[in-house]
Amino acid sequence: MEAKKIVKAEIISNRPIATNIMEMKLQVPEVSSLAKPGQFVNVYMDDKSLILPRPISICDADDNVLTLIYAIVGKGSLWMSECTVGQEIRVSTPMGNGFDLSGLKEGDTALLIGGGIGSCPLLKTAKILKDKGVKLNVAIGFRDEPFLEEEFKALGANVVVATDSGRVGYHGTALAAAMDNGMDCDHWFTCGPKIMLKFVAKEAMARGKDAQVSMEERMGCGYGACVGCVVDILEKGAEAPVRKKVCKDGPVFLGSEVFFNE
Ligand SMILES: Cc1cc2nc3c(=O)[nH]c(=O)nc-3n(C[C@H](O)[C@H](O)[C@H](O)COP(=O)(O)OP(=O)(O)OC[C@H]3O[C@@H](n4cnc5c(N)ncnc54)[C@H](O)[C@@H]3O)c2cc1C
Ligand code: FES
């Protein structure tokens, strides 16, 4: 595997797309040209009080431009939101394994289930699947205010939006919305809160499928040097679970192999 590098990226836009949700576009060909769906980058802050990088999923990428969507939740993401067009920031080259799309072929069906900010890495995933001729079903859930719906629809996906509040779309979870809309598919992909991943993995297994789940575990170093991000994984054929690092071995695992503790 290629060694990870930290490179400079020029901000070409940084704008709100929903309440406390920002979209940042970066001119950084060394990163965007390598990006695979489900991978993330580490974003470094030029602030001495923010030493650890913040992992942010690759939402979209072409040969030149990397798109990140992030929620403002603390000091790191607030720092990012205050960055301006033309400013250079430091990001890592793509990290982690990403979704394995190699087994999907034209005519297959795929169900993508996103929870909140976890919907973002599913956009690049959907683009690659569309190019393969896979039929896309997308269920995205939010507390109250959806985003990315139009981007998924523009790919020709069958999209359902769910909100906890019921103010927009289906009143309930993205998983319930998907199942109530008959979206069971050949292949399942999901990213979002751990509790959601647990139920998606369980539902997929009940239907004879194995969901690929992308974990957004809290991280420390972000590149495999600490144990800030471990999850228990029971690999097929193994007798006991092993501790795996989300930043290095993940963030994507098979739903059937993850020990969900909540
Ligand atoms: C592989 C991966 C991909 C991610 N992709 C995205 C993304 O595309 N967009 C995005 O907005 N965020 C994403 N995250 C989460 C993001 O890394 C954190 O929100 C960010 O690091 C918070 O930094 P902060 O300094 O703003 O907040 P902090 O001050 O570090 O934390 C603020 C609050 O957020 C909580 N928090 C921090 N990290 C996480 C986490 N990983 N999961 C749940 N709660 C957390 C803290 O417990 C605290 O309550 C991803 C995380 C991982 C591990
Ligand atoms: S965050 Fe340090 S090992 Fe994963």
Commentary on this structure:
With 262 residues, the chain is an alpha/beta fold. Strand 5 (60-61) and strand 6 form a beta hairpin. The protein has two domains: 6-92, Elongation Factor Tu (Ef-tu), domain 3 (Beta Barrel); 109-214, Rossmann fold, CATH 3.40.50. Strands 4-3-7-1-2-6-5 form a seven-stranded antiparallel beta sheet. It has six helices and 16 strands. It has helices spanning 29-32, 75-81, 121-131, 149-153, 174-180, 194-206, and strands spanning 6-18, 21-27, 40-44, 54-57, 60-61, 65-71, 88-92, 109-115, 135-142, 158-163, 170-171, 187-191, 212-214, 230-233, 242-245, 252-254. The structure holds flavin-adenine dinucleotide (FAD) and FE2/S2 (inorganic) cluster (FES). Residues 219-222, 224-229, 245, 247 line the site of FE2/S2 (inorganic) cluster.
Summarize the structure.
The chain has 262 residues and is α/β, with parallel strands linked by helices.
List keywords for this structure.
about 260 residues; alpha/beta; Elongation Factor Tu (Ef-tu), domain 3; Rossmann fold; seven-stranded antiparallel β-sheet; seven-stranded mixed β-sheet; 6 helices; about 30% strand; binds flavin-adenine dinucleotide; binds FE2/S2 (inorganic) cluster
